[in-house]
Amino acid sequence: MKDIDILKTIADNVVEMEEELTAKNSKKALEMNISPLTIINQGLVIGMNEAGRLFEENEYFVPELLLCSDAMYAGLEVVTPHIKKEETHVLGKVVIGVVEGDTHDIGKNLVKVLLQASGFEIIDLGRNVPARDFVDKAKQVDADLICLSTLMTTTMGEMKKVIELLKEERLRDRVKVLVGGGPISESFARSIGADGYGENAAGAVRVAKRVLNIPDALAS
After folding, report:
1. What are the UniProt keywords, alphabetically (predicted)?
2. I need a surface site. Which of 60, 140, 156, 207 has the fewest CB within 10 A?
3. Which fold has domain 1-82?
């Protein structure tokens, strides 16, 4: 089987909510010497994106979407331990979470996995996180970056709350803020004063490195 075929099969397994097959074929892809990040980005994420499209078009509903995410996580569980961390010092300390009012954490978890693989130390606050908790944790651990995620338009305003609280605490100059999620755009990020916008998980990693001015020698 060619690389492209196994990656498409993995994507199809996610869309078809086949948890065991997703794990089995993810393992098979590893045995074919396909890199873990390729399996994630060109298999698992492609499948989850397709599931999201079906959800938006009312062909899938919440139960189906959750089963698809279970399948994706089964694949992530197989491949994540094989991601080689960059052989450098920790690039930065990141507090990450889904803002208050939202419990969709698939995108946040993907960004977390790729940031960890890139050499960042991650403090994951989970989902439905109050704005104050992001700021308090960033202050406690001396974070370099806060990553905020949401999949709902009704909770986008929580991102601005975090930025305003950072200003109140006089931390804004020291702690960068990166935002992302389904309804988020570059223009929205600029409008609330965020430092960066991650269009997808891989893009979020690139932006995180850029906003933290990580030298190319370490960011490669």
Report:
1. Cobalt, Metal-binding
2. 140
3. 1.10.1240
